[in-house]
Specification:
mainly alpha, 2 domains, 434 Repressor (Amino-terminal Domain), about 0% strand, two-stranded antiparallel ribbon, about 70% helix
Length: about 170
């Protein structure tokens, strides 16, 4: 009997009578033991590799989210710049009634004062536009039209930036 598998020193009996050879049982048992050891080793290695890939994936996801936030910030900056730029062709073709100005403000979920800060006018001017008591000047008209391209999140970022620049 091999000294590598002393735990296999007992005999295995076949149903027909004579004992199965000790060497055959020892080899079979040793193969099973080594196979289990190898599977355990590979499983541990794979688990370590999985944890490392999972950690790397988390870092990549965080980087992508940071890039998305940065990209949204850049888009908001560009749109802020566009808000101040007149757009003569679009301006002439765009309908801008008092109701549409009010609807835009409500869609952006901002107050008259916040809209006034974005457009650099007084809150009363926004109120007059919404009631139809006055009409926006052409340059303000262009800014209002540019505001239509913004979403709530963009507007909140612009207002936050404006608030920080005042501080």
């Amino acid at each position: 009997m091999s000294s590598a598998a002393p735990h296999l020193a007992h005999l295995h009996w076949n149903r027909k009578g004579p004992p199965v050879g000790k060497v055959e049982a020892a080899v079979k048992s040793e193969i099973v033991r080594l196979a289990r050891k190898e599977v355990r080793s590979l499983a541990q290695h794979n688990a370590k590799a999985f944890r490392a890939m999972n950690a790397r994936l988390s870092k990549v996801v965080a980087e992508v989210e940071a890039l998305k936030r940065h990209g949204a910030h850049q888009v908001a900056q560009q749109r802020l710049h566009e808000v101040g730029q007149p757009a003569p062709m679009v301006e002439e073709q765009t309908r801008l009634s008092p109701g549409l100005i009010k609807k835009l403000r409500r869609r952006l979920d901002i107050s008259q004062g916040q809209m006034a800060r974005l457009l650099k006018v007084t809150p009363a001017a926004v109120g007059f536009w919404e009631t139809g008591d006055s009409k926006p000047r052409p340059e303000m008209r262009a800014r209002i039209i540019a505001l239509r391209t913004l979403g709530r999140r963009d507007v909140k970022q612009l207002l936050d930036q404006e608030r920080q620049s005042r501080s």
